[in-house]
Amino acid sequence: MENKNFQTFFDCGFSKVRAGTFNMNNDEAFYADSEFFTNQKNLEIKIQKIITSLEKDTSTYIKNINLMIDSPKMFSVGISLSKKLDGSKLQQKNIQFLVQDAKQQILKHYPSYNITHIIINNYKIDGIDYLYLPDEIKCYSISLDILFVCLPTDIVLYFKDIFSNSNIFIDQIICSSYAKSINYKHTLNLDGYTSFIDVGFNKTSIISYQGDKILSLDVLPIGGNHITKDISKILEIDIEDSENKKRNLEQILKPSNDENDSTDILQKIIFARTEEILELCIKSIETNSYSTKKFRMVLMGEGSKILDNEHKEKIYCQNDIDFIEETLEDICESGFKFISGINKQEVVMVPKRQIKHGFFEKFFHFFK
Question: Could you give the C-alpha distances from 353 to 80, 103, 206, 248, 357, in angstroms and in order?
Answer without folding.
Answer: 30, 20, 33, 46, 5
